[in-house]
Amino acid sequence: MKEQLQTLAGKFFSLSQFGYEDLEILQEEENIFVIKIQTNNSHLFIGKNGKNLDNIQHILRLLIHRNLDKSIKVSLEVNDYKQSKNEHLKQFILSKVAIVEKNGRDIKLPFYNAYQRKNIHSIVGEHGNPEIYTKSIGQGQDRRLYICKKDPKLTIDIDAIGI
């Protein structure tokens, strides 16, 4: 499977005229692969806010699914752009978690795509403070995430106040 992906991706990027120095296929799980590219033309591959990268990845997935009999997931990584972006996102989210821990007020995050929202839920969940959680509000493109602190439960001792 890895060799077939190497051949398909190699042909695809050779025809693209973007040019690349190195192409590597990594297998993360049985049917999950990462195509890693090193290039001097990363701006062409990535585009503004990664839009080109998302579109190229989509076209590449269609090509792979059309040419291979197996159903596999493929992610495209150019010059470790996504890895770097995920690290920046993690640092940003952890800084917001610290603010919520300190002042107890919810923070409304900027718009993120579904993949980023999933990562944010994981980052906050793995942070280790059970008092901090995320919630999603809205639909589709208008969906927003909030980082929140659980409200302390108010306990009233009925016997002590004579009710």
Characterization of this structure:
Helix content is 45%, strand content 21%. The protein has 2 domains: 78 residues, GMP Synthetase, Chain A, domain 3 (2-Layer Sandwich), CATH 3.30.300.20; 66 residues, 2-Layer Sandwich (Ribosomal Protein S8, Chain: A, domain 1). It is elongated and about 75 Å long. Helix 1 packs across helix 3. The strands form 2 sheets. It has a 3-stranded mixed sheet, with helices on both faces. It has a 3-stranded antiparallel sheet with strand order 4-6-5. The mean pLDDT is 89. By secondary structure, the chain is of the alpha+beta class. Strand 5 and strand 6 form a beta hairpin. The chain is built from 5 helices and 6 strands; from the N terminus they run αββααβαβαββ.
Number of strands: 6
Mean pLDDT across all residues, rounded?
89
CATH homologous superfamily caption of the largest domain: K homology (KH) domain
CATH architecture of the largest domain: 2-Layer Sandwich
* Low-confidence residue ranges: none
Range of helix content: 40-55%
Which radius of gyration do the C-alpha atoms yield?
A: 22 Å
